[in-house]
Amino acid sequence: TAQALQEIFPEAKLGIGPPIVDGFYYDFQTDPLSPDDLKVIEKKMQAIIKERQRFVRRQVSDQEALDEERNEPFKLELIHDKSNASADDGSSVEVGGDELTIYDNVRRNGDVAWKDLCRGPHVPHTGYINAVALTKTSSAYWRGDQANQQLQRVYGTAWATRDDLKDYQHRMAEAAKRDHRKLGAELDLFSFHEQVGPGLPLFHPKGGVIKRVMEDYVRARHIEEGFEYVGTPHIAKEDLFFTSGHLPYYAEGMFPHLEDDGQAYRLKAMNCPMHNLIYSSRGRSYRELPLRLFEFGTVYRNEKSGVVQGLTRVRSITQDDSHSYCTPEQAPDEVRHLLRFILSLLADFGMGDLALELSTRDEVGKKKDKFIGSDEQWEKATKVLSDIAHESGLTVVDDPGGAAYYGPKISIQAKDAIGRTWQMSTIQYDFNQPERFGLEYVAPDGSHQQPVMIHSAKFGSIERFMGVLIEHYAGAFPVWLAPVQVVGIPVASSYNDYLGGVLAKLQAVGIRTELDASDDRMQKKIRNAQKQKIPFMLIAGEIDAEANSVSFRFRDGSQRNGVPIDQAVAFIQEWAESHRNDDPKSEADGE
């Protein structure tokens, strides 16, 4: 991509080009690119592929790299800053470690067609690239920092065969139809506003309904599972986060401090420090354990504006956050309880294709020193999580070195309706905070012991989970989650009052309704309801009014006519209260 683009636009300067899931991107300093530009670049790429140019790797010194990349200012910065290369901004793909390498693209006659600073590895020659396509462009800040220059980012994908590429393009077309950002606007669920800031969503009334229904349901389920609902403020003294250990290590992820009367405060980026204070507010006995604290806590993460994305990566995060405090002997059953609860909760929302990832410490690598806690603590905790993960019967993927510095964790991953995998939930051991906060309980022998602390977020965040659900259901929510469950469509305005009375009966049993009393023709009203993906349309005209009945039209276009009002109300109420995740249809439902 970079070679083709520079052949077409010689003045373009190279940024970073890392691989990503199902593809790659490359950043350039150049004028904005159009879809027609991408077609021209892609055609040039095909010509380069046909030439079967060899990739020849050369190890170079810092000075040699600086000399060869003297006309590439962004590459020069990477060379000077190679010790700070990071996977987060993609720079570790270009530089890092103890050596620098340049890859030459060599034609069959031995001429060097192009070269690039890169760590590799590469395929032997360009002819190995059987199927490639450029997919889109966007703007991106250099190294993901909005204080830096804005570059043009070109995205692409490459596959082993053309059939694989076509399958991928079909999946992407379906994903585009389901994009929660697009549907969020079309269904009037949420928006973002420049005056508020990136990554800070505004939930509109319909989106607010979905959020409230999700929270009410999950709150009730937590209480059923023995959790106690608590509440904590959005802001706290900075000292609290030094006590917890989040500062100074997590400072970049938190918003800058605020000053009040000479005291520094921070927007919280996590709820656990305040839950620890609730635990330690009085003495605790082993008889109280496990103690399960839970809240919908809004936390704030200072995500770079270049990486926030719709609802799936935001700065204002509503976490369904719980912390279990238990004895070491209780820990296995508590983890088992949490995993069972999470799996059942995800199934309640229609997410059933699940797998687990077990993140442990790096036992032998250079990163082992970053993990706190004794070897014995890690061995016991890892065995507990591993045993329970494997006894679940789900696929378990090992992630050595992927644990947080303070303990191992299980992550729950879910596949959506078109096969994409999303990380949803976590169960996280914590060796750090009980010690830092001096948490204790009185054991049966009267001694003071330190509890085990287990973090858990069932959805990760309400915002992210809502974004996933929008895409999973393509905006056609199950009846119990739909912001508008029933729309009344009168055949003529003279039946507005009749249908209004039917909707009043539904509202009395908790059903969310709307009456389309507009001047549009009936077919236009039906199309509008279909676009809004409302599960039940109730239509009434002269025959229905005389028979004290209504006619149903469902999302799939099927119909049931002449249903008595009481039966219609009971049918809709039963469907909504059943929490079914499939779509109502005409055949046999409610007979």
Describe the structure.
The protein has 591 residues and is of the alpha+beta class. It has three domains: 2-178, 2-Layer Sandwich (Threonyl-tRNA Synthetase, Chain A, domain 2), CATH 3.30.980.10; 185-232 and 271-472, BirA Bifunctional Protein, domain 2 (2-Layer Sandwich), CATH 3.30.930; 486-578, Rossmann fold (3-Layer(aba) Sandwich), CATH 3.40.50. The chain contains 17 helices and 28 strands. An eight-stranded mixed beta sheet has the order 11-15-16-23-20-19-17-18, with helices on both faces. Helix 11 (375-391) links the parallel strand 17 (353-360) and strand 18. Helix 1 packs across helix 2 and helix 6 packs across helix 13 (462-472). The protein starts with a helix and ends in a 13-residue tail after the last helix.
Structure described in brief:
The chain has 591 residues and is of the alpha+beta class. It is 32% helix and 26% strand. It has 17 helices and 28 strands.
List keywords for this structure.
BirA Bifunctional Protein, domain 2; globular; eight-stranded mixed beta sheet; alpha+beta; 17 helices; Threonyl-tRNA Synthetase, Chain A, domain 2; Rossmann fold; 3 domains; 591 residues; 26% strand
